[in-house]
Amino acid sequence: MKKKLLIFSSIGLLIIISAIVFWRLSLSKPLPIPKVDLRPIEQDINPQGSGQISPEKAREIAGNIIKWLDSMKNEKGRYLLFEDCLGGEGCQKSTETNKQYGLYVLWARYKNFLNTNKEVDLVKIKNDIIILTTPEIGFPAQNDSYNCKLMWEMSQSEVFDKENKEAIDQVCIGSIHFGPEMNEFNRSIKQKKYDLDPKIDEVIEGKVLDKWEIANSLAFNKYALYASDLTYVYYYLGNNDDLDAAKFYFDMALQIISNKDNKLEDAVLGIASIDLYKATKEAKYLDFANYFLQAKSKIGCNSAEDCAYYIMFLQELSKINNNQDIKTELNKVVQLLMSKSYNRELSLYHNFQSKTYHTRVNALIAGVLADLTE
Predict the structure, then answer these.
(1) What are the BP-aspect GO terms (predicted)?
(2) How many CB atoms lie under 10 A from the CB of residue 140?
(3) Which domain range does residue 208 map to?
(4) Which is it for the CA torsion 102, 107, 110, 111, positive or negative?
(5) What's the pLDDT tens digit per position in 327-347?
(6) Burial class (CB in 10 A: 0-12, 13-18, 19+), 9
(7) Does residue 232 form part of some domain?
(8) Quick one: how many helices (H) and strands (E) in the chain?
(9) What whole-number distance in Å separates Cα of residue 250 and Cα of residue 226?
(10) Which one of 81, 214, 281, 337 has the minimum C-beta count within 10 Å?
(11) In the chain, how many domains are there?
């Protein structure tokens, strides 16, 4: 009997001790719970929580992109095409370069300098100008981008002295416009073989235009870029033939886009219509720009590069037509890029489908963001 009481007493003692231990543990400080940042991206972009990127944040991102672009050069000073960052395997820079990419970087540096006004940034701009005018390294360049468009803006700026402006001008004047279409234009210009009056009304009405035999649907992007760039050759040289050439390329791009291929990265044609409107003062080009805005806002952009050109188009159009709808669309596309393309850790924009960071795309975006005012 005493043995049973001893067992029960031992059990009771264990129960009491366990209860005391549990009670003491309940009074102890709980283990810290790891903090998880649940803020939406918009809150990081704009503390006011409006979902609209602030000019201050835009300039910050532009500045970070410029810092990355400093690292995207080879030993000769030419810019590399891209940097690939594969998941968990580090990043690999392209070894291939492109002369035209330096033009986009130079322009982005200039737009960023207008914000920073730092001498070190101006020195880098001047160094890039030297590279772009050095034979066999950056000069001359076949023109398949905005060689003259971007340089003209800088040439008109009070930032540069006469010597630097002459070098900037040479980048454009020394550019080479090439291809079978250019050869055809030069052969036929005196014959007036082509009607250069664009069929914009027909496109707005939804009609499909007949395509000239020389027009190649695969060259749409080049046609649209040339339509813009040759407009600025006209500014530089004052030759009406250059303006006619711009119209010639615009017409071919217009014929192609009239087929309503939603896979086209067509923002460059919107930019061309603005450039031709500014050069000719013909309202039909502005009509197309407004029509293009309505169509593009419904379809959206097909890639990070298309979006980059699209925000450039929207920014340029907003300076002609101070319409809140344009600014709203601009902020919407910037937000799209932030959600689909922006790497917050690197402060760079990658392709929609991969972690490839293209030099030209990031330079374009940086130039637009640096100039974002509201």
Answers:
(1) carbohydrate metabolic process
(2) 17
(3) 177-298
(4) negative
(5) 999 999 999 999 999 999 999
(6) exposed
(7) yes
(8) 16, 5
(9) 8
(10) 281
(11) 1
